[in-house]
Amino acid sequence: MLDGPFMVNQKHIQRFLTNDQIQEISNIVTDQFGFNLPTDELVDAIRLVLEDIPGIEIVSNQEIHHLTNLIRNSYNGHIKHQNQNSN
User: Fold this and answer.
1) Beta partners for 13?
2) Closest residue by Cα to residue 43 from 56, 29, 32, 57
3) Most buried of 6, 7, 13, 14 (most Cβ within 10 A)?
4) Could you tell me which of 13, 38, 11, 30 has the C-alpha nearest to residue 71?
């Protein structure tokens, strides 16, 4: 599915997902859980999808929170775009 969110460097293992990977996760959430999820359900859905990414278990809570926000913003942008196209 997706490559892990990290790449080993000299001292730290820390690299966020690319924009394309964030968009892919947003699309997966939309496909599996639908549109217009309430915020708490959306966050749960995102975390379920993130669990399938190898290496995600070593990500700090702060980084997971940041990733969740990025994916949520992508999801909401996708929903907004869909709503504009349907009008």
Assistant:
1) 8
2) 29
3) 6
4) 30
Q: Which residues contact 43 (CB under 8 A, 6 or more apart)?
A: 68, 72
* Digit-coded pLDDT (tens) for 12-47: 334 568 889 999 999 999 999 998 899 999 999 999
DSSP string, 19-71: HHHHHHHHHHHHHHH-SS--HHHHHHHHHHHHTTSTTGGGS-HHHHHHHHHHH
Distance separating alpha carbons of residues 72 and 29, to the nearest angstrom: 10
* Crossing angle (nearest 10°) for helices 39-50 and 61-86: 120
Answer whether residue 2 shows pLDDT above 70: no
